[in-house]
Amino acid sequence: MGESKMDVGGNGGGLIVVNNKQRAMLPNKSRGEFVRNQRKDSEGFSESPDLEFEYADTDRWSAELSELYSYTEGPEFILNRKCFEEEFRSHVSDNKWTELDPAQRRAHAMRLLDGLEVIAREKRLKVARAILYMAQGTFAECGSEAEVQHWMRYNIFLLLDVGTFTALVELLNMEIDNSAACSSAVRKPAISLADSTDLRVLLNIMYLMVETIQQEDLADPPEWRATRETFKTEMGSPLYNNEPISVMLFGMVTKFCSGHAPHFPMKKVLLLLWKSILFTLGGFEQLQNIKVRKREELHLPPLPEDSIRVIRSMRAASPPASASDLIEQQQKRARREHKSLIKQDNLDAFNEKDPYKSDDPREDEDDNDDNDTSMDTEPFPLERDEVMPPPIPHPPSERVNFPKGLPWAPKVREKDIENFLESSRSKFIGYTLGNDTDTVVGLPRPIHESIRTLKQHKYISIAEIQMAKEEDFQKTPLSGGEEDVEMSSTELLYQGILPSLPQYMIALLKILLAAAPTSKAKTDSINILADVLPEEMPTTVLQSMKLGVDVNRHKEIIVKAISAILLLLLKHFKLNHIYQFEYMAQHLVFANCIPLILKFFNQNIMSYITAKNSISVLDFPHCVVHELPELTAESLEAGDNNQFCWRNLFSCINLLRILNKLTKWKHSRTMMLVVFKSAPILKRALKVKQAMMQLYVLKLLKVQTKYLGRQWRKSNMKTMSAIYQKVRHRLNDDWAYGNADLDARPWDFQAEECALRANIERFNSRRYDKNQSNPDFLPVDNCLQSVLGQRVDLPDDFQMNYDLWLEREVFSKPISWEELLQ
User: Phi, psi at residue 135, to the nearest 5°?
Assistant: First the structure.
């Protein structure tokens, strides 16, 4: 793929740049740079256990809180406490915060809020630190992490109730527009933690408020629940600066990427942006509920299954064999006497020795079924076609019970039925009927049955209805009437980001590229480490190792936040209106998102998922409640005992889902996967034994299988079998046999994107560009007096040369009054 060729949005790279001072601060080989628990790609993974990972909107609450802070920010916890206690002692006697009655706590919160109004920056920062200490749960008075979390919830609901969030937004706006800080940061040779102190304190409080308030608890009093709903509505509405809070944060991202504000703490901005979108628009459960509701409103049949539950119940498949495993299998085979045909009982006996045989008893029950699709019947991946032919997906008959082992109900599009009927008519009768899917005169009975089966599994998506409606609006702008647009949080957010959406996408991808572990440093790239590097460079090996862990963790959290932001926006826009989704997706494609994600996966993905870039004793709230043990190089090297890193596996799944969203039903983008040689990269990702991740990898392999050639399919029968077993079937999709697709003519690729772009522009212009209404459809004024009475502003140069114009256009031209009067 070419490391140096990667570019986001055509504006140079987005990679990290460090100067000499910062380079000295980063750990190098001699300072103990280390990558823990790495395995080489050539090692076999057949013995690796399934990863006990449950995909969700977010990680555990404590993990999400701890990821807000870099380890270099550790000393600031004590500083926040000191600022709070100074304020507290000056107004309250010797009582502890936890011992005050609610009225006294509220009065003190109001006092602190008034303190944010002072002009002096140092005083304001002290008060902000005191408020941050409250949001952190007044931890000095707590004895356990659970107690800290209890007081966090109490204090944050109190702070929200007295109006702290609005004040913080105003202060944040002031800091964003602080040109002195921006110009000072631009001139500095090395930006460190100290340059973003004010911004970090404000963003910390805002993040803790959003993250805590969105956590629902059954024990919450009714007023807290009402507060949560109100806050959610306010955050999604254009109340702050006439735009939703997310739009303001997007503005910070683009300002940072343009180089005008290199001191912005980008990790915190992205985390707050992610949680704001998640809170205001909703997570994956809410998305499923919205989808069900919208289908009901459009009178569409219910979904065939709940995709979240199906994916959670899936088990991981054994990964495809590595080269060493294949050689070993071939040596074993050479020692055996093979006959041209193997009886079924011999095959079963051989299967017992198959190193990739699944342990699932359900699959053992399936061995005698005609429609067996389990991967167990695969003795040696390279030679499967010599033993038994690959399974052919038979369309189900009248009953809607699906063969055992297939998790998804098959789907068929209206277009697929039309294509099938057209080809059948031209073959048997010699004429076609266009879009008629009901007339079956003259077609043989088996074709009738096929059509009945296809129609039984026909799936009409919300997107198809939306596109048809949009086509009607474009065709009949006058008789179509006014469109009833629901002003949901998603709609308000789209309207907010629409004018600058391409710049926002480029900025996010630039930062993603800079944070990717496969990136190499470039001179013209952005520095994403401004909010992790300390002022003083590390002086010992231990400090250097700690900073190395901190920098890697910082990058992982940025990747996690960006992948979640992009996926949530794509999914919500797709449900809200298909052309909103297509607009965002097209700009991601134009900004090189597809090669960027493939570049991200072009690494040892197992070592990325098992990386241990965290120091659990330094995580909040553990570090403020317990005595810190002495850190040693050995304890840092050992890391924690987790089987995998939750955030890295979450990021990988999100990026694969984004890639699926961008390429689904788009032949030009599918060909990009082929051109960028994604198959070996994706196949390596199958080594991760996690069902959800494997499902999205297999989907990406399925769409390009027909373009990879017969030899690839023959050599990857285990992968083909996994696709058949785990990915939804489209009944007349010939993905496995490489037949040319009607829609996949190479000369149509450019036209496909251009047609899509034209549709998107027409949609945006019709719905959002009120000034550009078509003049042909404006009402005509037929009254002579009112037309002549209209005031027309003439340009200055015309007024200066008015005499010349009269002479040339009026006096010197003969006028036939008779013709004019007729």
Answer: -65, -25
* 86 CB-near residues (< 8 Å, 6+ apart): 126, 130
What is the reported pLDDT for 795? 84
* Residue 238 scores a pLDDT above 70: yes
**137, two tokens:** 């749960």
Decide if 545 contacts 27 (C-beta within 8 A): yes
Is residue 360 pLDDT above 80, yes or no? Answer: no
User: In this structure, are residues 556 and 45 in contact, taking their beta carbons and an 8 Å threshold?
Assistant: no
Using the 8-state DSSP alphabet, how is residue 392 labeled?
A: P
Give one word for 96, left, alpha or beta, with left for phi > 0 and alpha for psi -120 to 50.
beta
CB 32 within 8 A of CB 38: no
| 216 contact partners, CB below 8 Å, separation of at least 6 | 225, 228
- pTM for the full model? 0.82
Strand partners, 240: 243
C-alpha to C-alpha distances, 750 to 446, 583, 667, 676, nearest whole angstrom:
38, 16, 10, 17
- Report pLDDT digits (tens) over 62-103: 999 999 999 999 899 999 999 999 888 888 767 888 888 899
What 3-state DSSP class applies to 501? helix
Indicate the Cα dihedral angle 503, 509, 515, 519, nearest 10°.
-120
Interacting residues of 748 by C-beta distance below 8 A, sequence separation 6+: 667
Residue 164: partners with Cβ closer than 8 Å, 6 or more residues away: 109, 113, 131, 205, 209
- Tokens in use for 297? 């409103």
Instruction: Output the DSSP codes for 811-822.
Output: ITS---HHHHH-
364: confidence class by pLDDT, cuts 50, 70, 90: very low
List helix spans (H) across 55-100. Answer: 61-66, 76-91
Distance CA 725, CA 406 (A): 6
CA–CA separation, 632 vs 654, rounded Å? 35
Residue 809 has pLDDT above 80, yes or no: yes
Q: How many CA atoms lie within 13 A of 39 on its CB side?
A: 13
CA–CA gap between residue 611 and residue 37 (Å, rounded): 7
Length of the chain: 822
DSSP bridge partners of 600: none
